[in-house]
């Protein structure tokens, strides 16, 4: 996210005009790629003989509804050129949100999200289509601001395993050091000559990487393998001593599973220069190869089986039952108040932020059930604001996963109910300004209904 960019979301063309634009775009990109072909370093050498399986088809999605990174266009052009140079995959580029539907997705093996900030105008059916396609074997490749988007869409966050908090080490900062955590993985082969390397780019800090006990996502998320991590001692001066320090060895690139599908994410890609790096290009080609080793199951796409279930709270620590919870003495990014315990109900006014940007208002609560000696509780979190013309989304980060709610404009309220929350659970609550021009802010309210012991 770049708060120095124009925060206002530009007018969105009609679907018809956007469709026409999308149809022309592959030709324009191909022409642009031809002009820069000599500048793009080949990463794989001669193309290997064709294999039995058809080259995977990649849909590059570059729609941005918050800040639009200039590197989106660079990324789109680079992917077209890599497809031509290597013959390893076929590419279609689109910025038309109508293409995020089962009718289109079923024709592709990989969906690439290139810094897709903000909240795309998708229907609930489209979102279910993306989730079903992904869980039925579709591969997702996320780049940079793909995780600075869709805050109230919890399944999107679950898919990738993390959500943007801030970017203390900005795009213009000196290069930071990356640790190569698995030098044997083909995706990071370009960097495998050493256990670390330096790269100049903008590096995100994750909402779940705030030094809170028990919360370290995506590293601790099931089915996740971290490939690259940030050496926090190498970031710009003053960051680690300030209000937004990075977690030790914070994940930068990782791969994971989602149902029968595969996911790869790399936080690099803000800087246009990153896309020209041979090692980075190689990682993209190898990531597509890994993702497409599983292809979407067409029968599964047509099935009416339930979508993947949401997160499941862990079993409570019975040694803590009846004892007051420890409350970390800290305040997270953009929060209005320090962490505090809640036993029944509590409210907090949250800042309004900038339209289309990340949460400028949040509050962290510790669910303390010691007064009733309860083991678990049902917790309801409401987010409300005054103007129905504003659009805020509600997102909640826990040690075991993500929750969210994102009604459209006209409904000035979001609500999430989490069942079976264990004693002393930590809930990070954020109100994200997706399109609230008034910037008047919201009020978050938490209500705890303990399960009384018999």
TrEMBL record:
Gene3D superfamilies: 3.40.50.880. This is WW domain-containing protein. It comes from the Bacteria. Residues 248-280 form the WW domain.
